[in-house]
Amino acid sequence: MKLKEIRDIFVKEGINEDPRGLKAVEADLLKRKAEYDALSSEKKEVYDIESLENPYYDSRIIYGDKDAEAKTVMVGIDIETQELLLAKNLINSGTKIDLVIAHHPEGYAYSTFHSVIGMQTDILNKQGIPINIAEKIVSERIREVQKSVLPQNNERIYDAAKLLNIPFMTAHSVADNHVASFLQREIDALKPVYLKEIVELLNKYPEYRHATRIGHAPFILCGSDSSRCGKVFVDMTGGTEGPLESFEKLASAGVGAIVGMHLSAKAAKEAEKYRLNVILAGHISSDNLGLNLLFDKLESKAGKLEFVECSGFRRFRR
Fold first, then answer.
1. Predicted confidence band at 212 (pLDDT cuts at 50, 70, 90)?
2. Neighbouring residues of 134: CB distance < 8 A, sequence distance ≥ 6
3. What residue spans define the domains of the chain?
4. What's the DSSP call for residue 41?
5. Which of 8, 9, 50, 100 lies 20 to 30 Å from 70, alpha-carbon distance?
6. What is the rounded distance in angstroms from the CA atom of residue 128 to the CA atom of residue 281?
7. d(Cα 254, Cα 231) in Å, to the nearest integer?
8. CA distance 305 to 309
9. Superfamily of domain 178-282
């Protein structure tokens, strides 16, 4: 399958699993088109044209011929220059690698990924937070992340891929959408009463069982086994951790428990402050689940691919 076909499938399936819903994604793309049409010719020359069809700035081809064929893929949660050097060494030793895929954004996908955070506005609104409030607290988080990204040397990974001539792409939100929607559906179907039921559910999936074996088991951060769940919100997509102000608003909107990948110490204190229960499913294990669900769909269209696992990625087929 060609790189551009892989990218297109990732984007299409990412949209299908977007927790905002199709209408919100389409509205986002229409807004971008209107903004683009209003630009001067000079500004259109430097506009990210792909973003008119791909709503996920953090999921794209970073380097490589879009028409190049890929059958053997090296995948890692984090890919930096050392992983690309590893890939080149494997290639030189006789291992076939047509493409390297990173989960976490790098290069252009990293320098622009703050734009993905905007999707949290509609996600929070679906949980009951008024859209005007969600928009304001998320916009503050976007500015905060953008400032942290601006000083970074984001072309290092692109230059490495180019010099080594290794096709390279990222699959961040397109995978995170899958794990968020999948777990939300599974938990909603389960209708858990107690937090321990959610932990037991997570441990049925191979990604979380593998994480448990290496010391990263899902655990209850705020609450206990016997704490009652109430309304459960699976918060695992949207670029990065949500704004601190969201915890108060989520509690007021009736959310009783949050299931996330990870949570900072400040955020955990906010959750405790507003009596929210929190389960941390695990960061790398959740990333793996999202990627595996995405790759299952890719293989259903492309046929079986060969995977070279690295940097924390483990392929589990369903």
1. very high
2. 120, 121, 122, 124, 125, 246, 249
3. 3-175+286-309, 178-282
4. H
5. 50
6. 23
7. 7
8. 12
9. NIF3 (NGG1p interacting factor 3)-like (3.40.1390.30)
